[in-house]
Amino acid sequence: MVDIVEIIRIIFGSVFVMFLPGFAWSFVFFAKEEIDWIERIALSFGLSIALVPLAVFWLNYLLGVKIGILNVSIVVLALTGAAAGTYRLKGKYTLDDLLALLKGRLQNE
Predict the structure, then answer these.
(1) Would 24 disulfide with which of 42, 52, 83, 107, CB 3.0-4.6 Å?
(2) Does Magnesium appear among the keywords (predicted)?
(3) pLDDT tens-digit readout, 8-20
(4) pLDDT, tens digit (0-9, with 9 covering 90-100), for 50-73
(5) How far apart are CA 43 and CA 83, in angstroms?
(6) Which DSSP category does 105 fall into?
């Protein structure tokens, strides 16, 4: 018999890994009014299915990070956080502003 806690854990884990990173990145790639919600939801699943395994496998290949539940969770949080940060900066700065800021920091070091 499957316990109710295990069912809830599976549901939240699936949303966390299979939906959340793609949903955050869909706002980076498309403005709020540019696509409908049903398109955004479908795109969220597709982006998550593409981004999470690629990020985990590249970390394993490049840095030798072992693939485990904790490391996958950290990758999902990092992908979601990167998308959220990019979305916040998207409205405040243009690409030229960000490049000038980066160039200024590199010259100061």
Answers:
(1) 83
(2) no
(3) 988 988 888 889 8
(4) 988 888 888 889 888 888 888 888
(5) 14
(6) H
In one letter, which amino acid is 27?
Answer: F
Who's near 17: CB < 8 A, 6+ residues apart?
48, 52, 72, 76
* Contact indicator for 33, 9 with CB cutoff of 8 Å: no
Q: How far apart are CA 99 and CA 109, in angstroms?
A: 16
Residues 6+ apart with CB under 8 A from 106: none
34, 72, 86, 89, 99 from 95: Cα distances, Å: 20, 30, 11, 10, 6
CA count, 13 A, side-chain hemisphere, 56: 19
